[in-house]
Amino acid sequence: MIGVLIVTHGDLGKELLYSAELIVGKQRNVATLGLFHGDSIDGFSEKVSKTIKELEEGEGVLVFVDLYGGSPSNATALNMKKFFKNMQFECITGVNLPMVLEALMLRSSYNLKKLKEHCIEAGLLGIKDLYQQLYSEENIKKVVDGR
């Protein structure tokens, strides 16, 4: 099973996982790491490295980070170079709940690269203008017409 790691500022990752597990149930081979005030980047990078190794069961690890270019992203990027030859892991920035849900539900069915691509698509499709979704002229017509 593909491991899933969520690396964020503060407890965002922990709360995303908690929210996802409310929907899909308790998960195994998943971890979160949060960066807090006073944490060193080197120490945090080592935690990311150690956790990726712990989650790897032979099918790779999908890492989600919250913000491209932020410290969690940079700490993960440092590990990519380290693991490039001997371990599969992929990373997606801009983590959101639809991405995490898709990863948890499909990680037994997809390979790592396919799962990464699917999660990116799910994350993008989850971004909507709710007002436009509910009150666009087309949707108002559907409601009026009873469709």
Automatic annotation (TrEMBL):
It is found in: Cytoplasm. One of its GO terms (cellular component) is membrane. Coiled coil: none annotated. It holds the Pfam family EIIA-man. One of its GO terms (molecular function) is kinase activity. InterPro entries: Bacterial_PTS_sugar_comp (IPR051471), PTS_EIIA_man-typ (IPR004701), PTS_EIIA_man-typ_sf (IPR036662), PTS_IIA_man (IPR033887). Keywords: Cytoplasm, Kinase, Phosphotransferase system, Sugar transport, Transferase, Transport. It comes from the Bacteria. PROSITE patterns: PTS_EIIA_TYPE_4. GO terms for biological process: phosphoenolpyruvate-dependent sugar phosphotransferase system. Residues 1-127 form the PTS EIIA type-4 domain. Its main location: cytoplasm. The keyword Nucleotidyltransferase does not apply. This is PTS sugar transporter subunit IIA. It comes from Biomaibacter acetigenes.
